[in-house]
């Protein structure tokens, strides 16, 4: 392996890497606009110039492969001056309208100006070139050509990642600008990723634009709940009440404003599909259920759970253990499913459609999968795809009066609508049952027929783990608080188990450790080893170790 | 100051109260002296008009030109709101009393305008930071400070209330540090009867609201 010297420190690195990749790995930051690890090298911004010994000129570190014995310096005066000059050119025609620019606060021009340039512009403010603003590239993305620095990240994204080639550089020289052909707007299902990769305020998402300033936001690392791929994302939500105490207007501490792709090379690189990115809007589509309802009367979850437990107990005593079962959702966390399996004595299923057949089938060639549930693999691993035969089997058993008491956990699909026939079957199932409990996130009309309805925390409101299609266990975090009386499903199960005489902590991390002891596949996993990027269970981890050896 | 036990010795004039009281004690003369003072003040105030007090609130003392009173939202030449909803004021506000909702302005050069701009006057501490932070001089302060209302809801000033010329006609504008450089104007209902309304905007637009309020008043 070649050895290179980076800022007087010797590193042994893999062959074939570029200088900027090595610097990223060892934690030396080289400024860059056009280079992005997942869309390849362009070399147009001239920000990543570094000094290499024995080379007469500075070289762009994004496009220079390392060689044995290379001596690279990123912190010399010559490099600093080159970066300063590059910044001056990039900012030459940039309208300094940061207060109205939506990127402000997370703009790479602002960051690098403060870190590397701090020059005074030599160009008169009134003579800057004016270009097209608020130009619709497609239904989801708007372009401001004045703010563009022509790094062509968006162009290369549509060329190299989605292969749709919608965004192009039009014209040449000082007339060059980003644009689309009139009959080919940016309509691909991954279009909002260009907003993520844009380092400046040129590309903005129509959905997020002007909603909130970036410095009011707080990021929480989580996992998308839109399909079985389990893309890593960051949920940006309100960090504090904006607008103080203005009654009725105050944004509470629980509003999600956007989600941004989080880099995980093993799952989604840096990308998210548009459906998954905007899936948090699905939670706002229907009114949320905020109080428990028992027999048509509003009550609290704490009051309802003992009643539920005693009813289930009575049914078990009268008709045997098999008369009580549960239908979970593949959007519930592993922790909740595990505790559910405990309480219902393995009589749990989760299939309401064709999840198990489709969860590994790709919808296109990039990220999306046909099964729109994040935790189908986790439910299978916990052994929930058993002989209850899903919703259809439960319905048949309920109509034969083999099953009399049932807990249904219903979380609507975040992407696409739930199948109408599944809803229809659920209604028939409730009608056929003697005692039915539904824990649901939203106040659906068809749920009202059930004996007890309990408000449940939705995706982004509970902490837990999802196992994606490739059996990678990842942590989904709580970004906002659930509304009203709603609690996560695993908390309800903890209460029920304690009524049944099993004391369990409500901490999802501790529950997962118990799960790891019981389920051999998840042995040796805990929240620390899973970490922000997820981890494969031991079986696969061993494979990886062997490969490395 | 010389340090002594228990602190510092400071040269302070010492008044012997008991001595002074004994001197003025039981003197009829001093009583009449006091009557004299009262009588003299009466003569000067009644005949010469030299009053130490004013009959507030009919009369008011002049305030400083930098007085920080009720906020005013300024307008452009065409009478539309100057604010571009950049949230600088809401960001700097130490009392967190400003609430803004931005909308897309039909003119892409302007980009944004506030669909809603509310100040909770009960929370506001009148520090004037919002005026300092504003890059457009869209918000200034007046010398008006009377804000008595009949219910708490009215203390939340919305756009239409903030565009009103809070006491400007009588008292003139207040804190406005960038005055010579700004082109901001204060809304004049006489000159700007026809307010250009950005298309595709709901009836909450300030211009619409202000018009409707003027109509309501007449």
Q: What's the arrangement of secondary structure elements?
A:
The complex is a heterodimer of chains A (549) and B (218).
Chain A: E1 3-6, E2 9-12, H1 19-26, E3 49-52, E4 59-60, E5 71-73, H2 77-90, H3 108-117, E6 135-136, E7 141-143, H4 153-161, E8 167-170, E9 177-180, H5 193-197, E10 203-205, E11 217-223, E12 232-238, E13 256-261, H6 274-277, E14 292-294, E15 297-299, H7 301-319, E16 324-327, H8 334-343, E17 348-349, H9 355-358, H10 376-381, H11 390-399, E18 405-410, H12 420-432, E19 435-440, E20 452-455, E21 464-467, E22 473-476, H13 489-499, H14 508-518, H15 527-530, H16 538-548
Parallel strand pairs in A: 1-5, 16-17, 16-18, 18-19, 19-20
Antiparallel strand pairs in A: 1-2, 3-4, 3-5, 6-7, 7-10, 8-9, 11-12, 12-13, 14-15, 14-20, 21-22
Chain B: E1 2-4, E2 7-9, H1 17-24, H2 28-48, E3 71-75, H3 88-92, E4 98-104, E5 112-120, H4 129-133, E6 139-141, E7 156-157, H5 159-163, H6 168-171, E8 185-186, H7 206-217
């Amino acid at each position: 392996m070649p050895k290179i010297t980076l800022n007087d420190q010797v590193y042994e690195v893999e062959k074939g890497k570029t200088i900027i990749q090595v610097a990223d790995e060892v934690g030396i930051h080289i400024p860059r606009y056009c280079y992005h690890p997942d869309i390849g090298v362009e070399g147009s911004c001239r920000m990543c110039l570094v000094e290499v010994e024995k080379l007469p000129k500075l070289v762009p570190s994004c496009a220079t492969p390392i060689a044995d014995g290379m001596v690279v310096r990123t912190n010399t005066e010559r490099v600093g001056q080159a970066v300063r000059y590059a910044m001056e050119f990039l900012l030459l025609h940039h309208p300094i309208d940061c207060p109205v620019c939506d990127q402000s606060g997370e703009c790479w021009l602002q960051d690098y100006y403060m870190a590397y340039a701090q020059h005074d512009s030599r160009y008169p403010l009134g003579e800057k070139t004016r270009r097209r603003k608020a130009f619709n590239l497609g239904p989801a993305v708007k372009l401001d050509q004045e703010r563009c620095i022509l790094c062509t990240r968006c162009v290369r994204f549509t060329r190299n990642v989605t292969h749709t080639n919608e965004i192009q550089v039009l014209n040449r020289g000082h007339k060059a600008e980003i644009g689309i052909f009139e009959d080919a707007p940016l309509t691909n299902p991954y279009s909002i990723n260009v907003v993520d990769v844009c380092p400046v305020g040129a590309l903005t998402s129509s959905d997020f634009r002007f909603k909130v300033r970036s410095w009011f936001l707080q990021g929480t690392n989580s996992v998308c709940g839109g399909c079985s791929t389990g893309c890593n994302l960051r949920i940006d939500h309100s960090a504090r009440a904006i607008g103080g105490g203005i009654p009725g207007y105050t944004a509470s501490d629980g509003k999600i404003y956007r989600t941004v792709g989080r880099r995980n090379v093993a799952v989604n690189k840096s990308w998210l599909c548009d459906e998954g990115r905007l899936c948090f809007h699905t939670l706002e589509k229907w009114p949320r259920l905020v109080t428990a309802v028992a027999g048509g009367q509003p009550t609290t979850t704490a009051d309802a759970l003992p009643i539920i437990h005693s009813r289930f107990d009575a049914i078990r005593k009268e008709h045997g253990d098999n008369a009580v079962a549960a239908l979970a959702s593949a959007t519930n966390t592993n922790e909740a499913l595990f505790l559910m399996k405990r309480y219902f004595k393995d009589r749990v299923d989760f299939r309401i459609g064709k999840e198990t057949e489709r969860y590994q089938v790709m919808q296109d060639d990039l990220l999306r999968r046909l099964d729109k549930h994040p935790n189908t693999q986790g439910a299978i691993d916990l052994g929930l795809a058993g002989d209850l035969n899903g919703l259809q089997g439960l319905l048949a058993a309920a109509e034969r009066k083999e099953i009399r008491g049932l807990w249904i956990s219903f979380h609507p699909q975040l992407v696409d609508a739930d199948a109408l026939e599944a809803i229809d079957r659920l209604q028939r199932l409730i009608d056929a049952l003697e005692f039915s409990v539904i824990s649901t996130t939203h106040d659906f009309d068809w749920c009202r027929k059930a004996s007890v309805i309990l408000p449940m925390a939705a995706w982004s409101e509970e902490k837990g783990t999802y196992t994606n299609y490739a059996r990678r266990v990842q942590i989904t975090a709580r970004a906002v608080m659930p509304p009203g009386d709603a609690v996560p499903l695993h908390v309800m199960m903890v209460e029920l188990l304690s009524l049944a005489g099993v004391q369990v902590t409500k901490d999802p991390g501790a529950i997962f450790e118990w799960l790891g002891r019981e389920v051999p596949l998840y042995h040796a996993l805990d929240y620390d080893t899973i970490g922000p990027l997820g981890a494969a269970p031991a079986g696969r981890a061993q494979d990886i170790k062997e490969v490395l050896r | 100051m010389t340090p002594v036990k228990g602190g510092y010795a400071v040269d302070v004039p010492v008044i012997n109260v008991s001595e002074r009281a004994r001197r003025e004690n039981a003197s009829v003369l001093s009583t009449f002296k006091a009557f004299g003072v009262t009588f003299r003040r009466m003569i000067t105030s009644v005949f010469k008009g030299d009053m130490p007090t004013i009959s507030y609130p009919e009369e008011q003392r002049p305030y400083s030109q930098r007085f920080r009173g009720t906020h005013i939202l300024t307008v452009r030449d065409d009478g539309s709101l100057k604010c571009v909803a950049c949230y600088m004021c809401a960001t700097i506000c130490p009392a967190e009393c400003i609430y803004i909702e931005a909308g897309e302005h039909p003119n892409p050069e302007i980009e944004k305008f506030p669909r809603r701009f509310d100040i909770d006057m009960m929370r506001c501490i009148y520090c004037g930071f919002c005026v300092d932070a504003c890059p457009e001089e869209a918000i200034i302060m007046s010398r008006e400070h009377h804000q008595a209302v009949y219910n708490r809801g009215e203390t939340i000033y919305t756009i239409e209330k903030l565009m009103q010329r809070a006491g400007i006609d009588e008292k003139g504008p207040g804190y406005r540090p960038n005055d010579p450089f700004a082109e901001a104007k204060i809304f004049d209902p006489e000159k700007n009867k026809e307010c250009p309304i950005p298309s595709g905007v709901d009836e909450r637009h300030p211009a619409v609201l202000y018009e409707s309020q003027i109509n309501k008043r007449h």
